Amino acid sequence: xxxxxxxxxxxxxxxxxxxxxxxxxxxxxxxxxxxxxxxxxxxxxxxxxxxxxxxxxxxxxxxxxxxxxxxxxxxxxxxxxxxxxxxxxxxxxxxxxxxxxxxxxxxxxxxxxxxxxxxxxxxxxxxxxxxxxxxxxxxxxxxxxxxxxxxxxxxxxxxxxxxxxxxxxxxxxxx
Length: 175
Description:
The protein is an alpha+beta fold. The chain has helices at 3-14, 37-45, 47-55, 67-81, 96-117, and strands at 18-21, 27-30, 119-120, 123-125, 137-138, 145-148, 153-156, 171-174. It has 2 domains: 3-80, no CATH class; 119-175, no CATH class. α1 (3-14) crosses α3.
């Protein structure tokens, strides 16, 4: 399962397609309208990733999903990503203080990875409308306020102020 396959699934759904995975692992989709040829070609190219996403039930939520649905999807996606991972256990001859130190170090590492994953450039663009991930921070100034005209391109409110725009011309969010 890749980010590209999840993006293709989202675009197929936006085109009105319904996706299913048969018992033999084949992906089938149907749509009441015609699907663009370039999207079909891209879906064929990433069929293994799409099948893996369907098998893991790690499909991205529909655009009209509730926050509870989105949270459940994020939990399933995290479990799929961590499938087979087991945190290291300290050897039995370690003292309790050494074990606590290992656990503390692992929490700090996980926190560092999470902070690194949430860093965003001062401005970025994506083909699909989206919102900055909660907790996203600017790599330049560390700010967490973002604004956009179209929800596709986002700008750090500190590094790229929305000077000259009225409140109705842009959307501002605090991540």
